[in-house]
């Protein structure tokens, strides 16, 4: 249930066509699309601008998403600075198995840390396109979502007073723990899946041992290497869910990485200081529908896909493109088709990516379950990936996000 604001008997002092809750990639992209069309909108964010721009996150971006950003004038720095990956490498049975997906599809991944993209989007929305934004707000609430005069209220960080903003639509882009997801908790159907594993996410001040992503499928657990720059490397180690990062000192981390990524003829890993250690519990959820009255959810407010397949940021940006364009069509041309079909259309891709993540998880982790049957089928999948051209091509399309259009 949504609340009725204390000032609902009087006209709200401010009004925007759209209020966007959350200044992450999805919310800022929606805002940029709206401002490019001349639509007035307000972005509300509980964090400071500095914290939003410095929040470290992975940034594997699919080529269709990059092209979507480029068409909307949002990819300038990305195209100049991002790394392009054309191949990855699987390591299992003590051997190296390069997978050159560019040769199969002509496509590639772009690696651009999410905080860089967010910094670009904040600047474009607020400084270039003149979008209204309030950082550091508190106690955001949404009101009257089922009526034709919804509003959003918040505590002003300077005065401490509650301010009410009227709008035509609310874009809920405030993540898994945000107020917009909470607002529909009693009305939404939420499907959840827990993988029963964790990943120890590491950032090392050390050059990568190979110029490509490495996937180590080992009986003792998955390991991954994701190059970030010539001096910094992202690593992952499978661990129990809820594990304590402090139980992984420097020596233990590097011993496990050396062991799980070992392969004949491979260059040894270069060790370095670990500047980040945190445990990610692998789980997914999908909220259905993604629209409730005048509220439309995007990104993690609507769905979470574990980082197993690096799809979360990409799904969020696909949502933002569709939602921003649908708002423009409705507000400027009176065409309601985009908003009416938003939830159904987006959920098709969300479920497709969830299924791929689950399939890939079994490939990565099946051999470490202690179940001989799952270990055998995981190994069969890996071998088929390198013996069947049809399987390799299908995997490459799904891995790159080029298989389907939504």
UniProtKB/TrEMBL annotation:
Coiled coil: none annotated. It comes from Streptomyces variabilis. Pfam families: FAD_binding_3. PANTHER family: P-HYDROXYBENZOATE HYDROXYLASE (PTHR43004:SF3), TRK SYSTEM POTASSIUM UPTAKE PROTEIN (PTHR43004). Residues 17-356 form the FAD-binding domain. The keyword Iron does not apply. This is 4-hydroxybenzoate 3-monooxygenase. Keywords: FAD, Flavoprotein. Gene3D superfamilies: D-Amino Acid Oxidase, subunit A, domain 2 (3.30.9.10), FAD/NAD(P)-binding domain (3.50.50.60). NCBIfam families: PRK08243.1. InterPro entries: FAD-bd (IPR002938), FAD/NAD-bd_sf (IPR036188), RIFMO-like (IPR050641).
């Amino acid at each position: 249930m949504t609340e009725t604001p204390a000032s609902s008997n009087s006209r709200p002092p401010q009004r925007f066509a759209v209020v966007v809750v959350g200044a992450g990639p999805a919310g800022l992209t929606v805002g940029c699309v709206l401002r490019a069309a001349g639509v007035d909108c307000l972005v509300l964010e509980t964090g400071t601008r500095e914290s939003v721009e410095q929040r470290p996150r992975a940034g594997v971006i699919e080529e269709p998403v990059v092209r979507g950003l480029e068409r909307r004038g949002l990819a300038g720095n990305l195209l100049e600075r991002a790394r392009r990956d054309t191949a990855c490498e699987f390591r299992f049975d003590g051997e190296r198995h390069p997978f050159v997906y560019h040769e199969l599809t002509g496509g590639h991944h772009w690696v651009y840390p999410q905080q860089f993209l967010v910094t670009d989007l904040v600047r474009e929305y607020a400084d270039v396109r003149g979008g209204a934004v309030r950082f550091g707000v508190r106690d955001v609430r949404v009101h009257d979502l089922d009526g034709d005069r919804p509003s959003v209220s918040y505590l002003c960080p300077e005065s401490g007073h509650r301010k009410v903003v009227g709008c035509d639509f609310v874009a809920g882009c405030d993540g898994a723990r945000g107020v917009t997801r909470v607002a529909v908790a009693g009305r939404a159907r939420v499907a959840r899946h827990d993988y029963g594993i964790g990943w120890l996410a590491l950032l090392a001040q050390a050059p990568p041992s190979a110029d490509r992503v490495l996937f180590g499928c080992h009986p003792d657990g998955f390991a991954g290497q994701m190059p970030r720059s010539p001096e910094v490397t992202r690593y992952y180690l499978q661990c129990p869910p809820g594990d304590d990062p402090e139980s992984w000192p420097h020596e233990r981390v590097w011993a496990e990485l050396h062991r799980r990524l070992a392969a004949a003829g491979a260059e040894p890993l270069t060790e370095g200081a670990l500047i980040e250690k945190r445990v990610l519990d692998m789980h997914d959820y999908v909220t259905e529908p993604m629209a409730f009255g005048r509220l439309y959810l995007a990104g993690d407010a609507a769905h979470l896909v574990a980082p197993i397949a690096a799809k979360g940021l990409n799904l969020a940006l696909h949502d933002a493109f569709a939602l921003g364009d649908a708002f423009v069509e409705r507000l400027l041309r009176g065409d309601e088709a985009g908003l009416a079909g938003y939830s159904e259309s987006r959920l098709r891709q969300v479920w497709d990516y969830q299924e791929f993540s689950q399939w890939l998880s079994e490939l990565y982790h099946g051999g470490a379950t202690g179940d001989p049957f799952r270990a055998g089928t995981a190994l069969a999948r890996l071998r088929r990936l390198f013996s069947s051209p049809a399987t390799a091509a299908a995997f490459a399309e799904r891995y790159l996000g080029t298989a389907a259009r939504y």
